[in-house]
């Protein structure tokens, strides 16, 4: 197993109380395991509320694991999406090669739960953090770690900090390739080779591969966007073939949740290990990823469509105007950076699908819903966009047996660490 199952199981002994805004007073004092067995009805939970759907989570994990295996790719899902060790375990149990994280705090969460293989998809220059990493590698021979570097100066800083730590294990690094108007990563292939040369000269580091992120270069799946992604991945593939690695099986890694079909098309079959880092797929959404996912675009394989596993529940607190309802959930509870929530269903006297309603704005604690028929006191189920900025607002998330059922029951609770 790629994670400490005992540590994950121990989360079931945490007591429920006021610290978790999703939890009803009737469950205070219960352990998570006791509340799980009680199968509390959704109606017992107040609003605002974020929930996950058990069936959708299981479906998404299975679909992506099967797709990656069929494509010949290793999957190291980006754990920053959920920061939930219980969900990481589900992904690892389904065959994931490792877990990807983005920074030192996330790395410490991963190690606290015994994640055996961690990819830090970023530069790692913090001296204190590197000293901690060196000690962690020394104390845990089975722990495998990989991170990025995109400058000679970065190599020098890593090497200096690791020399001071006096660790004996080399740290595996990938040269990160970027692109115009992208994020991190060297822009020039010649610079990439110079960084690789610097890594090979550093006694504390080992050149283990090349990596990048195509999602920062194209925000839509238009023909132009896909051409940009294809050209970048071709550069990554060509550079991969021209570097002199220090490991027997070098890594070439790319892939978010938007263009993993192209990652398979361009990088699949390259020598070494091709590692896909998609993360949002496990939760998916009713917004950005619903539109851009290769499965939604018909390029991920027949019958493989992902399902949104997250929903918000908000109560109509006021109808101050005939066509306006004010809901009791806002920016502190819901994601809004990649699209506003969409009303889907009403629970209450006007129970049924929402017809023509839309959210037009969010305040800190309120949402503006227009053209809906929901009455004061009714609860509206909302579809959400972008799981990475949804789950971070909730430390404990109830998991429903079926978010579309007439009377959903809470069958689990997912603990997060953001």
TrEMBL record:
Keywords in alphabetical order: Lyase
Keyword Lyase in record: yes
Entries under InterPro entries matching the protein: Ala_racemase_N (IPR001608), D-amino_acid_metab_enzyme (IPR051466), D-ser_dehydrat-like_dom (IPR026956), D-ser_dehydrat-like_sf (IPR042208), PLP-binding_barrel (IPR029066)
Gene3D superfamilies on file: Alanine racemase (3.20.20.10), D-serine dehydratase-like domain (2.40.37.20)
All copies of domain D-serine dehydratase-like, residue ranges: 309-401
A GO molecular-function annotation: lyase activity
Pfam families: Ala_racemase_N, D-ser_dehydrat
Family stated for the protein in its record: Belongs to the DSD1 family.
PANTHER family: D-SERINE DEAMINASE, ZGC:162816-RELATED
Descriptive protein name: Amino acid deaminase
Organism lineage: Bacteria, Bacillati, Actinomycetota, Actinomycetes, Streptosporangiales
């Amino acid at each position: 197993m790629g994670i400490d199952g005992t540590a994950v199981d121990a989360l079931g002994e945490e007591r429920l109380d006021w610290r978790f805004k999703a939890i009803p007073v009737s469950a205070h004092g219960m352990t998570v395991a006791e509340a799980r067995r009680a199968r509390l009805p959704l109606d017992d939970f107040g609003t605002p509320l974020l929930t996950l759907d058990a069936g959708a989570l299981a479906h998404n994990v299975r679909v992506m694991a099967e797709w990656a295996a069929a494509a010949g790719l290793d999957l190291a899902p980006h754990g920053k999406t959920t920061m939930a060790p219980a969900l990481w375990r589900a992904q690892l149990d389904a065959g994931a090669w490792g877990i990807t994280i983005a920074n030192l705090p996330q790395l410490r969460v991963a190690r606290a739960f015994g994640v055996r293989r961690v990819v830090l998809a970023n530069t790692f220059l913090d001296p204190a953090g590197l000293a901690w990493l060196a000690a962690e590698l020394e104390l845990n021979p089975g722990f495998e770690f990989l991170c990025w570097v995109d400058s000679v100066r970065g190599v020098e800083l890593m090497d200096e900090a690791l020399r001071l730590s006096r660790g004996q294990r080399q740290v595996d690094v990938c040269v990160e390739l970027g692109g115009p108007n992208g994020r991190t990563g060297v822009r020039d292939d010649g610079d990439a080779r110079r960084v690789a040369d610097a890594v090979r000269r550093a006694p504390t580091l080992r050149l283990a591969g090349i990596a990048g992120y195509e999602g920062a270069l194209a925000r839509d799946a238009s023909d132009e966007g896909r051409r940009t992604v294809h050209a970048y991945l071709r550069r990554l593939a060509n550079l991969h073939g021209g570097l002199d690695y220090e490991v027997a099986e070098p890594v070439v890694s790319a892939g978010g949740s938007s263009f993993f079909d192209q990652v398979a098309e361009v990088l699949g079959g390259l020598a070494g290990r091709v590692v896909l880092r998609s993360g949002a797929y496990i939760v998916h959404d009713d917004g950005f990823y619903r539109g851009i996912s290769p499965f939604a675009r018909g390029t991920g394989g027949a019958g493989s469509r992902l399902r949104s596993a997250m929903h918000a529940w908000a109560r109509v607190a006021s109808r101050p105007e005939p066509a306006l309802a004010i809901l009791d959930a806002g920016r502190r509870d819901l994601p809004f950076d990649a699209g506003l929530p969409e009303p889907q269903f009403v629970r209450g006297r006007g129970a049924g699908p929402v017809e023509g309603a839309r959210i037009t704005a969010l305040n800190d604690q309120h949402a503006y819903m227009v053209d809906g028929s929901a009455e004061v006191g009714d609860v509206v189920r909302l579809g959400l966009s972008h799981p990475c900025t949804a789950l971070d607002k909730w430390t404990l998330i109830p998991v429903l047996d079926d978010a579309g059922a007439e009377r959903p029951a809470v069958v689990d609770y997912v603990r997060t660490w953001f």
